[in-house]
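User: Could you write out the 3D structure of this protein bound to heme C? I've included everything you need below.
Assistant: Certainly. Input first, then the structure.
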Amino acid sequence: MSQGNEKGVPNWILFLFMGTIVLGGLYAIFMHGFLGYNQDNAYRPGYIEPADAGCTFADIPANTAAARANGEATYKNVCAACHGQNMEGQIGPSLADAEWWHTPSPAPVQDVACIVVKGVNPPKTKGNAGPMPARGNGALSDREIFEVLYFVGSKNNSLVTNQ
Ligand code: HEC
């Protein structure tokens, strides 16, 4: 009767079955990306907007050579374990590239300072990176945070530190 196969499953059922698998696969790739590589798109709406960051800084130090030197020392002590000796990224993301997860790029230094003050906790953490501890767990003053960021900015043009 049917010409599908020996067990008599009609061709249109096989066609429907295969079609469902193919469409399901295409849907999964479209929504989640191939191997999940476009998670950014799903995440991006949750990033900390400058408007809702809500940090005010009374004491913003000047971006001097001395400030950057202090910042380099603090970076090595507090941040390097998670962001890499050369800011290349470890547990935390690279701070040396132009990709900013939690602020537009190029990144205004005050926005980035606010990220460091508050840290990043779920649900705003990205992927499996894990939380960013407030003040890097280093109990840093606002001044020390700006100094670190002046140092980072001296290696990364996408962090706008001139004021
Ligand atoms: C215990 C590990 C850890 C330490 C220490 C740490 N960070 Fe992070 N940091 C992270 C992680 C993890 C993230 C990513 C959070 C997320 O989105 O999931 C992050 C995110 C950030 C971001 C946001 C990056 C972006 O692309 O928007 C900045 C800026 C940052 N850290 C700066 C610092 C600075 C400066 C220090 C040192 C004062 C520091 N961090 C110390 C783990 C750490």
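The longest strand covers residues 107-108.
User: Perfect, thank you.
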